[in-house]
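Can't attach files on this board, so I'm pasting raw text. These are the components:
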Amino acid sequence: MQEATLSFKARAKEALADPTLKIAIDRTTGTAERKRAVAMTQFPQFEAARERGKRIKDHVIANLDHYLLEFERNAIASGAKVHWARTAEEASQIVVRLCKEAGAKRVTRVKSMLGEEIGLPHALDEAGIERVETDLAEHIVQLGGDRPSHIVWPSMHRTREQVSEMFKRLHRAPHQEETIEAMVDSARRELRDKFLTADVSISGANFLLADTGATCTVTNEGNAELTTTPPRVHIVTAGIEKLVPSMGHAIAMLRLLVRSATGADVTQYTTFHCGPKQTGDRDGPEEFHIVLVDNGRTRMLREGMKDMLRCIRCGACMNHCVVFRQLGGHVYGGTYPGPMGAVLTPVFDGLESSRDLPHACTMNGKCQEVCPVAIPLPTLLRGWRDRSWREGLEPATVRFGLGIHTFVASRPRLYRLGTAIAIRVMRLFSRGGLVKGMPGLGAWTAYREFPAPAKRTFMEMYKDQEKGQ
Amino acid sequence: MSARETILDAVRSGLGNTAVDPAAVRRDADALLQDLPSIRPALLADGLVDAFIARVTSPKVAATAERIASASELPAAVGRYLEAFGLPAVVALQPAAPLQDLDWSGFELHDKVAPDEMIAIGVARWGIAETGSLVFHSGADTPILANFLPLHHLVMVRADTILPFLDDYAAATAGQRPPRNVNIVTGASGTTDIEGSLVLGAHGPRFLHVVIVGTPDSSE
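---
Top answer:
Structure tokens for the assembled complex are below.
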């Protein structure tokens, strides 16, 4: 949804030149990777669970119309009001209208990637409604006036030093001590009264339960419950792919989601929200609205991207992506970064403006390997590359370069001659086992290691062996 | 055409299927929940209460736990907890009969939880051994905010309500009208949003203390 003022390459260049960013990314993704690895050793059933999770999501997608109707029927029976939105704009308009109808001056929000996807923060700001982000990371993003850079840790691009500076400047009673504990406490004090005085709360949903019409949120902070309980109106926005048949299926998916995201077995708070406050209830909202959002999902069904609808937004693919770990999330320009973002952003924003994303991939396959629902991300990325080529979106320089490569590679003598020369030149610039400072290769080796060529090439060894026989 | 019809039509044309047999869908959905032991972790101990406590007190959940023989011992257990932390005996008590019927002499009680409440005492409907979780249903005797506002949350759970797995909770409540909120609480509130390092007491409780009453086959 965000309009990118700079090209992907220009943003990547900026990110690579920012030394603080690399530290921030490494601190969070490194921890996430380690914790997930430990969780996997304690869950030998992971492979079987993952296969089952994949089948559950495939089953739901194959019967999506059935489950949407079942969910709608049960949600209405529970007292909820169900709304449907074809596009991001339509979804935001519905939420803003509901807020206005509720006479809302202040709304509290629980972090939701769908909310970001439909541009909800912007729509609320435009409508002049005070928006309070309650997830700690989203609170940091809001104070910093920038955008989330990760789907689980939206403020991972900030170091503790930067967060401390912002809190001291913007909180009413900021921390005195320079510890992360004290900073978290400062945010707790800052947000406390806002939770309790909001008119409307807005959350997303990790799952929609077809058989009861309930929605499910998972958080570690407890901000979802503090957000969605006091206000008179609770609005849920959710993508239509979030359905599961029942709570049992949600539980099977939760085991995969949480371990893949943070390495915990379950989040501290897993809450199911079903309808508004019931007769006799001590607290809870009087109105409960659910906005079901398409925004490109039915197009993905039609255009051979069904596999991507399994995605449960755990973030494991980005935590394990060598490109993401160099660049961080902002460079991707869309709501969703990393490998899953590179697949999804062209769906939302069109391939023409985002064709660089599917190219920002080494095809090492790590994302698919860690994906808890086995999405073939490299295959989907390759699909975008093919399409970009077929639709003539690749620039002339790329077409020309590939043309030359095809010409040379299909002529073995010429190819060998070319590579023999290249290897000799590279050897001239080799120091300590790496190629350094070679003209024409500087942009590549500034942020990457380029190993020096082996002493002897494969072809040289092969010829010697042939002679020896 | 309404947004609803447009979306449903687009789903159907994307799937290419015409008629859905609800009974067949149901059978397929049920089949996906067969053979659960192969897709979930094993319990940490043989006995349910032992497995539950092992999870509750594991580093990942990082709560504390103790066992008492009968609910009548709860006030004394709470007293010991407060003394250890040097806290006053002023507590918010969940307005639930199993708690209100106990002898709380020596305590100053209230049932409305304040935004900066120091100590709240609640009772969970179920415990889950798989994850060390406590399950609450919102209702007339269970305000939702009572589980989230206090800094110290002390929760009583009867040993005979501890279920092995999360799936057993789903099975135990299947077919019933769900409450507005089902809260599955596992440990104290935490955040890893600043550089991935875990800090407790983000917005919810910083301390969770679980008191298990009786044995699995006692009716206390």
